[in-house]
Design goal:
Length: 340
Amino acid sequence: MITERLEISKESYSKTITRCAEILNDDGIVAIPTETVYGLAASAYSDDAIKKIFTAKGRPQDNPLIVHISSLDMLNDIAIEIPKKAKECAKAFWPGPFTMVLKQSDKISKTVSAGLDTVAVRMPSDKVALDIITASKTPLAAPSANISGSPSPTTALHVLNDLEGKIDAVVMGEECTVGVESTVITLATNPPRLLRPGGITVEALRKILPDLIIDKAVLQKPMENEKVASPGMKYKHYAPKTETVLVSGSMDNFSSFVNSKNDCLAICFAEEENLIKTKKLIYGSSSDEKTLAKNLFSVLRQADSFNVKTVYIHSPSKEGVGLAVYNRLIRAAAFKEIIL
Ligand code: TXA
Ligand code: MG
Protein backbone atom coordinates (compact mmCIF):
# COMPACT_ATOMS: atom_id res chain seq x y z
CA MET A 1 0.00 0.00 0.00
CA ILE A 2 1.23 3.51 -0.79
CA THR A 3 0.76 5.87 2.16
CA GLU A 4 -0.46 9.27 0.95
CA ARG A 5 1.30 12.28 2.51
CA LEU A 6 -1.30 14.99 3.00
CA GLU A 7 0.22 18.45 3.45
CA ILE A 8 -1.45 21.16 5.50
CA SER A 9 -0.10 24.34 4.00
CA LYS A 10 -2.47 27.29 3.64
CA GLU A 11 -3.25 26.31 0.04
CA SER A 12 -3.75 22.59 0.66
CA TYR A 13 -5.57 22.74 4.02
CA SER A 14 -9.17 22.26 2.93
CA LYS A 15 -8.21 19.71 0.27
CA THR A 16 -6.42 17.66 2.93
CA ILE A 17 -9.36 17.79 5.36
CA THR A 18 -11.75 16.68 2.58
CA ARG A 19 -9.40 13.87 1.51
CA CYS A 20 -9.16 12.61 5.12
CA ALA A 21 -12.96 12.57 5.43
CA GLU A 22 -13.19 10.67 2.14
CA ILE A 23 -10.69 8.00 3.23
CA LEU A 24 -12.27 7.67 6.69
CA ASN A 25 -15.79 7.31 5.27
CA ASP A 26 -14.46 4.64 2.95
CA ASP A 27 -13.25 2.53 5.93
CA GLY A 28 -9.64 3.67 5.55
CA ILE A 29 -7.15 4.62 8.28
CA VAL A 30 -5.33 7.96 8.50
CA ALA A 31 -2.68 9.26 10.92
CA ILE A 32 -3.66 12.70 12.20
CA PRO A 33 -1.95 15.21 14.47
CA THR A 34 -3.44 15.99 17.88
CA GLU A 35 -2.02 18.18 20.66
CA THR A 36 -0.84 15.07 22.57
CA VAL A 37 0.60 12.61 20.03
CA TYR A 38 -0.30 11.61 16.46
CA GLY A 39 -3.32 9.29 16.35
CA LEU A 40 -4.19 6.54 13.86
CA ALA A 41 -7.82 7.32 13.07
CA ALA A 42 -10.73 5.24 11.78
CA SER A 43 -14.50 5.65 11.89
CA ALA A 44 -15.74 4.48 15.30
CA TYR A 45 -18.81 3.07 13.49
CA SER A 46 -16.81 0.77 11.19
CA ASP A 47 -15.72 -2.65 12.42
CA ASP A 48 -13.66 -3.18 9.26
CA ALA A 49 -11.73 0.07 9.67
CA ILE A 50 -11.07 -0.53 13.37
CA LYS A 51 -9.68 -3.97 12.60
CA LYS A 52 -7.24 -2.34 10.16
CA ILE A 53 -5.88 -0.21 13.04
CA PHE A 54 -5.16 -3.28 15.17
CA THR A 55 -3.42 -4.97 12.22
CA ALA A 56 -1.31 -1.95 11.18
CA LYS A 57 -0.09 -1.32 14.75
CA GLY A 58 0.27 -4.97 15.74
CA ARG A 59 -1.89 -4.02 18.72
CA PRO A 60 -3.03 -6.70 21.18
CA GLN A 61 -6.74 -7.42 20.57
CA ASP A 62 -7.68 -6.80 24.21
CA ASN A 63 -6.42 -3.20 24.28
CA PRO A 64 -9.33 -0.79 23.64
CA LEU A 65 -9.14 2.48 21.67
CA ILE A 66 -10.06 6.08 22.52
CA VAL A 67 -12.94 7.63 20.53
CA HIS A 68 -12.39 11.27 19.47
CA ILE A 69 -15.25 13.74 19.10
CA SER A 70 -15.46 17.34 17.94
CA SER A 71 -18.70 18.38 19.67
CA LEU A 72 -20.61 17.45 22.82
CA ASP A 73 -23.53 16.26 20.66
CA MET A 74 -21.37 13.39 19.45
CA LEU A 75 -20.93 12.21 23.06
CA ASN A 76 -24.56 11.08 23.25
CA ASP A 77 -24.02 8.64 20.38
CA ILE A 78 -21.08 7.03 22.10
CA ALA A 79 -21.80 6.89 25.81
CA ILE A 80 -24.88 6.28 27.97
CA GLU A 81 -25.76 7.16 31.58
CA ILE A 82 -23.35 10.12 31.49
CA PRO A 83 -22.90 11.28 35.10
CA LYS A 84 -23.04 14.95 36.15
CA LYS A 85 -19.35 14.85 37.05
CA ALA A 86 -18.51 13.85 33.47
CA LYS A 87 -20.27 16.94 32.18
CA GLU A 88 -18.33 19.12 34.64
CA CYS A 89 -15.04 17.54 33.54
CA ALA A 90 -15.96 18.02 29.88
CA LYS A 91 -16.64 21.68 30.54
CA ALA A 92 -13.34 22.15 32.36
CA PHE A 93 -10.96 20.05 30.25
CA TRP A 94 -12.41 19.76 26.72
CA PRO A 95 -11.22 20.37 24.16
CA GLY A 96 -7.89 19.15 25.51
CA PRO A 97 -5.62 16.27 26.55
CA PHE A 98 -8.25 14.54 28.67
CA THR A 99 -10.09 11.21 28.21
CA MET A 100 -13.06 9.84 30.17
CA VAL A 101 -14.13 6.21 30.36
CA LEU A 102 -17.94 5.98 30.43
CA LYS A 103 -20.62 3.34 29.82
CA GLN A 104 -20.69 2.45 26.13
CA SER A 105 -23.64 3.01 23.81
CA ASP A 106 -24.36 0.15 21.42
CA LYS A 107 -24.13 2.44 18.38
CA ILE A 108 -20.36 2.18 18.08
CA SER A 109 -18.28 -0.76 16.94
CA LYS A 110 -17.70 -3.33 19.68
CA THR A 111 -14.16 -3.75 18.35
CA VAL A 112 -13.33 -0.24 19.63
CA SER A 113 -13.66 -1.30 23.23
CA ALA A 114 -12.14 -4.74 22.84
CA GLY A 115 -15.16 -6.39 24.44
CA LEU A 116 -15.49 -4.06 27.47
CA ASP A 117 -18.88 -2.44 28.20
CA THR A 118 -17.21 0.96 28.62
CA VAL A 119 -15.76 3.42 26.12
CA ALA A 120 -12.97 6.01 26.38
CA VAL A 121 -13.86 9.42 24.86
CA ARG A 122 -11.82 12.56 24.22
CA MET A 123 -12.31 15.91 22.47
CA PRO A 124 -8.86 17.03 21.24
CA SER A 125 -7.98 20.72 21.03
CA ASP A 126 -5.83 20.48 17.89
CA LYS A 127 -7.59 22.37 15.08
CA VAL A 128 -6.61 19.90 12.36
CA ALA A 129 -7.94 16.96 14.40
CA LEU A 130 -11.22 18.76 15.15
CA ASP A 131 -11.70 19.76 11.50
CA ILE A 132 -11.12 16.17 10.34
CA ILE A 133 -13.66 14.77 12.83
CA THR A 134 -16.23 17.41 11.86
CA ALA A 135 -15.68 16.91 8.12
CA SER A 136 -15.98 13.13 8.35
CA LYS A 137 -19.19 13.48 10.42
CA THR A 138 -18.19 10.50 12.54
CA PRO A 139 -16.45 10.04 15.86
CA LEU A 140 -12.96 8.68 15.23
CA ALA A 141 -11.34 5.85 17.14
CA ALA A 142 -7.62 6.63 17.34
CA PRO A 143 -4.81 5.04 19.30
CA SER A 144 -1.33 6.55 19.08
CA ALA A 145 0.02 6.13 15.52
CA ASN A 146 3.04 3.98 16.38
CA ILE A 147 3.87 0.29 16.12
CA SER A 148 2.61 -1.21 19.39
CA GLY A 149 5.27 -1.03 22.09
CA SER A 150 7.42 1.65 20.46
CA PRO A 151 7.50 5.29 21.64
CA SER A 152 4.39 7.27 20.62
CA PRO A 153 4.83 9.59 17.60
CA THR A 154 5.01 13.34 18.13
CA THR A 155 5.89 14.21 14.51
CA ALA A 156 4.59 13.04 11.13
CA LEU A 157 8.06 11.59 10.41
CA HIS A 158 7.83 9.38 13.51
CA VAL A 159 4.55 8.03 12.07
CA LEU A 160 6.13 7.36 8.67
CA ASN A 161 9.09 5.60 10.31
CA ASP A 162 6.69 3.15 11.96
CA LEU A 163 3.74 2.84 9.60
CA GLU A 164 4.68 3.86 6.04
CA GLY A 165 3.12 1.35 3.65
CA LYS A 166 0.71 0.04 6.29
CA ILE A 167 -1.83 2.90 6.43
CA ASP A 168 -3.77 4.91 3.84
CA ALA A 169 -2.47 8.39 4.65
CA VAL A 170 -0.56 10.64 7.05
CA VAL A 171 -1.41 14.28 7.64
CA MET A 172 1.96 16.08 7.59
CA GLY A 173 1.13 18.37 10.54
CA GLU A 174 3.22 20.15 13.15
CA GLU A 175 5.07 18.64 16.10
CA CYS A 176 2.66 17.89 18.97
CA THR A 177 2.68 20.49 21.74
CA VAL A 178 1.92 18.31 24.80
CA GLY A 179 4.04 15.34 23.74
CA VAL A 180 2.54 12.66 26.02
CA GLU A 181 -0.85 11.00 25.59
CA SER A 182 -4.00 12.31 27.25
CA THR A 183 -4.89 11.83 30.90
CA VAL A 184 -7.35 8.91 31.19
CA ILE A 185 -9.83 8.64 34.06
CA THR A 186 -12.74 6.29 34.53
CA LEU A 187 -16.10 7.55 35.71
CA ALA A 188 -17.65 4.14 35.12
CA THR A 189 -16.58 3.18 38.66
CA ASN A 190 -17.05 4.90 41.99
CA PRO A 191 -14.91 6.65 43.18
CA PRO A 192 -13.42 7.98 39.92
CA ARG A 193 -9.99 6.61 39.14
CA LEU A 194 -6.95 7.89 37.25
CA LEU A 195 -5.90 5.20 34.77
CA ARG A 196 -3.18 7.11 32.91
CA PRO A 197 -1.57 10.45 33.85
CA GLY A 198 -1.16 13.01 31.06
CA GLY A 199 -1.40 16.68 30.15
CA ILE A 200 -4.25 17.39 32.61
CA THR A 201 -2.72 16.97 36.06
CA VAL A 202 -4.07 15.18 39.15
CA GLU A 203 -3.97 18.54 40.94
CA ALA A 204 -6.34 20.07 38.32
CA LEU A 205 -8.62 17.02 38.27
CA ARG A 206 -9.06 16.96 42.05
CA LYS A 207 -10.61 20.43 41.91
CA ILE A 208 -13.61 18.77 40.23
CA LEU A 209 -13.14 15.22 41.48
CA PRO A 210 -11.84 15.53 45.06
CA ASP A 211 -12.29 11.77 45.60
CA LEU A 212 -10.19 10.79 42.51
CA ILE A 213 -7.95 7.84 43.29
CA ILE A 214 -4.79 6.91 41.43
CA ASP A 215 -4.85 3.39 40.07
CA LYS A 216 -1.85 1.50 41.40
CA ALA A 217 -0.78 0.49 37.90
CA VAL A 218 0.08 4.18 37.23
CA LEU A 219 3.27 3.85 39.25
CA GLN A 220 3.76 0.12 39.78
CA LYS A 221 4.22 -2.95 37.67
CA PRO A 222 0.97 -4.95 37.42
CA MET A 223 1.38 -8.57 38.62
CA GLU A 224 1.56 -11.38 36.07
CA ASN A 225 -2.06 -12.16 34.97
CA GLU A 226 -3.48 -9.34 37.11
CA LYS A 227 -6.71 -7.85 35.73
CA VAL A 228 -5.95 -4.16 35.19
CA ALA A 229 -8.52 -1.36 34.89
CA SER A 230 -6.89 -0.05 31.70
CA PRO A 231 -5.59 -2.88 29.50
CA GLY A 232 -2.89 -0.63 27.98
CA MET A 233 -1.14 -0.44 31.34
CA LYS A 234 -0.03 -4.05 31.40
CA TYR A 235 2.10 -3.84 28.28
CA LYS A 236 5.76 -2.85 28.01
CA HIS A 237 5.55 0.41 26.18
CA TYR A 238 7.41 3.35 24.69
CA ALA A 239 10.63 1.33 24.78
CA PRO A 240 13.83 1.79 22.79
CA LYS A 241 15.32 -1.52 21.62
CA THR A 242 18.42 -0.84 23.75
CA GLU A 243 18.24 -1.89 27.41
CA THR A 244 16.82 1.10 29.29
CA VAL A 245 17.07 1.87 33.02
CA LEU A 246 15.44 4.69 34.96
CA VAL A 247 17.69 6.31 37.59
CA SER A 248 16.55 8.51 40.50
CA GLY A 249 18.88 10.72 42.53
CA SER A 250 20.56 14.13 42.66
CA MET A 251 22.28 15.61 39.60
CA ASP A 252 25.71 15.03 41.19
CA ASN A 253 24.92 11.39 41.91
CA PHE A 254 23.41 10.79 38.46
CA SER A 255 26.38 12.33 36.64
CA SER A 256 28.95 10.39 38.72
CA PHE A 257 26.96 7.22 38.09
CA VAL A 258 26.84 7.56 34.28
CA ASN A 259 30.43 8.87 34.11
CA SER A 260 31.59 5.62 35.76
CA LYS A 261 29.89 3.43 33.11
CA ASN A 262 31.23 2.38 29.74
CA ASP A 263 29.17 2.18 26.64
CA CYS A 264 26.08 4.03 27.77
CA LEU A 265 23.80 6.90 26.78
CA ALA A 266 22.52 9.30 29.45
CA ILE A 267 19.12 10.93 28.91
CA CYS A 268 19.46 13.86 31.25
CA PHE A 269 18.44 17.39 32.25
CA ALA A 270 19.77 20.61 30.70
CA GLU A 271 21.48 21.49 34.01
CA GLU A 272 23.62 18.34 33.70
CA GLU A 273 25.10 19.15 30.31
CA ASN A 274 28.56 20.02 31.65
CA LEU A 275 28.60 17.41 34.41
CA ILE A 276 28.07 14.41 32.14
CA LYS A 277 31.03 13.18 30.09
CA THR A 278 29.41 10.17 28.35
CA LYS A 279 27.10 10.27 25.32
CA LYS A 280 24.00 12.22 26.25
CA LEU A 281 20.63 13.49 25.11
CA ILE A 282 18.98 16.36 26.95
CA TYR A 283 15.20 16.29 27.35
CA GLY A 284 14.73 19.65 29.10
CA SER A 285 15.28 21.47 32.36
CA SER A 286 14.52 19.44 35.52
CA SER A 287 12.09 22.11 36.72
CA ASP A 288 10.15 22.33 33.44
CA GLU A 289 8.00 19.20 33.31
CA LYS A 290 6.06 20.42 30.27
CA THR A 291 9.20 20.56 28.15
CA LEU A 292 10.34 17.17 29.47
CA ALA A 293 6.95 15.78 28.33
CA LYS A 294 7.17 17.45 24.93
CA ASN A 295 10.63 16.02 24.18
CA LEU A 296 10.25 12.63 25.86
CA PHE A 297 9.22 10.40 22.93
CA SER A 298 11.58 12.11 20.52
CA VAL A 299 14.60 11.36 22.73
CA LEU A 300 13.43 7.78 23.30
CA ARG A 301 13.20 7.36 19.52
CA GLN A 302 16.75 8.69 19.06
CA ALA A 303 18.27 6.46 21.75
CA ASP A 304 18.86 3.39 19.57
CA SER A 305 20.91 5.34 17.03
CA PHE A 306 23.70 5.76 19.66
CA ASN A 307 24.40 2.01 19.52
CA VAL A 308 25.24 1.69 23.21
CA LYS A 309 24.72 -1.19 25.62
CA THR A 310 22.48 0.67 28.08
CA VAL A 311 20.41 3.85 28.20
CA TYR A 312 20.20 5.49 31.66
CA ILE A 313 17.44 8.06 32.04
CA HIS A 314 17.41 10.58 34.86
CA SER A 315 13.99 10.31 36.47
CA PRO A 316 11.91 13.53 36.64
CA SER A 317 9.93 14.75 39.64
CA LYS A 318 6.43 13.26 39.82
CA GLU A 319 4.79 16.67 40.26
CA GLY A 320 2.31 18.05 37.68
CA VAL A 321 2.93 16.68 34.18
CA GLY A 322 6.07 15.04 35.64
CA LEU A 323 3.81 12.18 36.82
CA ALA A 324 2.95 11.42 33.17
CA VAL A 325 6.62 11.54 32.17
CA TYR A 326 7.56 9.19 35.02
CA ASN A 327 4.68 6.82 34.14
CA ARG A 328 5.94 6.51 30.52
CA LEU A 329 9.59 6.18 31.53
CA ILE A 330 9.02 3.41 34.05
CA ARG A 331 7.33 1.43 31.26
CA ALA A 332 10.04 2.29 28.72
CA ALA A 333 12.48 0.86 31.27
CA ALA A 334 10.29 -2.24 31.77
CA PHE A 335 10.13 -1.20 35.47
CA LYS A 336 13.94 -1.34 35.91
CA GLU A 337 14.71 1.50 38.31
CA ILE A 338 17.87 2.35 40.26
CA ILE A 339 17.61 4.70 43.22
CA LEU A 340 21.01 6.31 43.97
O1 TXA B 1 -3.65 11.41 23.71
C1 TXA B 1 -4.18 10.34 23.45
O2 TXA B 1 -4.99 9.79 24.23
C2 TXA B 1 -3.80 9.68 22.13
C3 TXA B 1 -4.26 10.58 20.99
C4 TXA B 1 -4.10 9.94 19.64
O3 TXA B 1 -5.55 11.02 21.23
N1 TXA B 1 -4.36 8.35 22.03
C5 TXA B 1 -3.87 7.31 22.75
O4 TXA B 1 -4.47 6.10 22.51
O5 TXA B 1 -2.98 7.43 23.57
P1 TXA B 1 -3.85 4.70 22.95
O6 TXA B 1 -4.68 3.68 22.31
O7 TXA B 1 -2.42 4.65 22.63
O8 TXA B 1 -4.14 4.62 24.49
C6 TXA B 1 -5.44 4.40 24.96
C7 TXA B 1 -5.40 4.02 26.42
C8 TXA B 1 -4.91 2.59 26.59
O9 TXA B 1 -4.08 2.52 27.74
C9 TXA B 1 -6.22 1.84 26.80
O10 TXA B 1 -6.04 0.66 27.53
C10 TXA B 1 -7.07 2.86 27.52
O11 TXA B 1 -6.71 4.10 26.94
N2 TXA B 1 -8.50 2.63 27.30
C11 TXA B 1 -9.20 2.78 26.16
N3 TXA B 1 -10.49 2.43 26.34
C12 TXA B 1 -10.62 2.05 27.63
C13 TXA B 1 -11.69 1.56 28.42
N4 TXA B 1 -12.91 1.38 27.92
N5 TXA B 1 -11.45 1.25 29.73
C14 TXA B 1 -10.20 1.44 30.23
N6 TXA B 1 -9.13 1.87 29.53
C15 TXA B 1 -9.33 2.18 28.25
MG1 MG C 1 -0.44 4.13 22.59
